[in-house]
Design a protein that fits this description.
This protein has 343 residues and is an alpha/beta fold. The protein is built from 15 helices and 10 strands.
């Protein structure tokens, strides 16, 4: 499938900052630490994108099939002027990407101050295990929807033989669960019990855009295992971020942007038939035209997802006593990721 994805138009739209976004740039320039670590960002060249299948095409993850190292640096400078942003990057996740070449691109071309998460291939564990010995590999990322049909179990896309090798080499994994934490908690706990020395980062606060039934209990169950951390990528809810910090602890939560998907302007909502969805003001290729027309009003004045996630973190940090806020901020935006990913 080779339908058109107008990446350049999407980037131009994102680059036209609203007045609110301009104010947020200055606000966070004053508030954020001078050095930020972003521990969740995608990066690969257009030449690495061989195809985009229908499932990927109809998903927001295909908004920017490529995003180069240079573009990543340029956008960091636009969004965080004057800041040093160090980044853990890995390639885009859908199957049509040449992940072997994209891995080598990051491993050989990334700035020395940044880090790389190897994109592992569920259908080639030998390659994945071999590449874990590459000197610049700081983490391992594998993805449930690389498979067709998408995996529903963690061990389908993270083979045990690969996890065993990662544990032995002390390489942490970036885990995007197949379902949100409240649905697949048993799988996560089984993984932790089977591989007790494996360091794990649950991405997107384990897929929680808002507080749902059972979330507090799920965080409490995982809090018992100190080897499990979380990143905040694309979580727009201050309540969720605060709950995670209060239950799991401020030493185990790390900032992640999910760039370049953080450049999408959208808001989550619950569709009466389809459940959790995103409303956008802009007609991205993955939006259904009729649904977009019906629900686009929800996204009026929406900022980049980047700012929604940052505002959620800031609000959550402000819930701590004033004399603790600077320390918590430093941990989330720098210290925790520096320790976990060996920056």
């Amino acid at each position: 499938m080779n339908q058109k994805i107008d990446r350049e138009a999407y980037l131009a739209y994102a680059r036209t900052f609203t007045d609110v976004e301009q104010k947020l740039i200055y606000e966070f320039a004053d508030w954020l630490p001078e050095t930020i670590i972003d521990c969740h960002a995608h990066c690969n060249l257009s030449e690495h994108v061989l195809s985009v299948d229908e499932r990927a095409y109809n998903h927001m993850l295909s908004t920017f099939p490529s995003f180069s190292l240079e573009e990543s640096r340029q956008w960091n400078a636009l969004l965080h002027p004057g800041k040093v942003v160090r980044t853990l990057r890995f390639p885009k996740t859908f199957q049509g990407v040449d992940h072997r070449s994209a891995n080598l691109y990051l491993l050989t071309q990334s700035p020395k101050e940044d880090r790389i998460a190897l994109y592992g291939l569920p259908d080639d564990p030998d390659y994945t295990i071999k590449m874990l010995d590459y000197p610049r590999v700081s983490a391992l990322k594998m993805y449930y929807s690389y498979l067709e049909p998408p995996a529903t179990e963690i061990y389908q896309y993270f083979p045990k033989v690969v996890l065993k090798a990662a544990q032995e080499k002390n390489i942490p994994i970036v885990l995007h669960p197949p379902k949100r934490i409240t649905i697949c908690l048993d799988q996560i706990l089984k993984l932790v019990e089977d591989f007790p020395q494996l360091r794990i980062c649950l991405a997107h606060l384990s897929l929680t855009k808002w507080v749902v039934s059972g979330l507090e209990d799920a965080f409490a169950a995982i809090a018992k295992y100190p080897q499990v951390n979380f990143d905040t990528s694309l979580v727009p809810s201050a309540e969720v971020v605060n709950m995670a910090m209060q239950i799991v602890g401020t030493d185990r939560i790390m900032y992640g942007s999910d760039g370049p998907l953080h450049l999408i302007r959208s808001v989550p909502y619950t569709h009466p038939q389809h459940g959790e969805r995103l409303a956008t003001g802009y007609p991205y290729h993955w939006t259904d035209p009729a649904e977009h027309e019906e629900f686009k009003h929800l996204a009026v004045n929406a900022t980049h997802a980047h700012w929604q996630a940052l505002c959620a973190i800031k609000t959550a940090i402000f819930s701590f006593p004033q004399n603790e806020q600077e320390m918590v901020k430093q941990k989330l935006f720098h210290d925790n990721a520096k320790s976990f990913y060996k920056f």
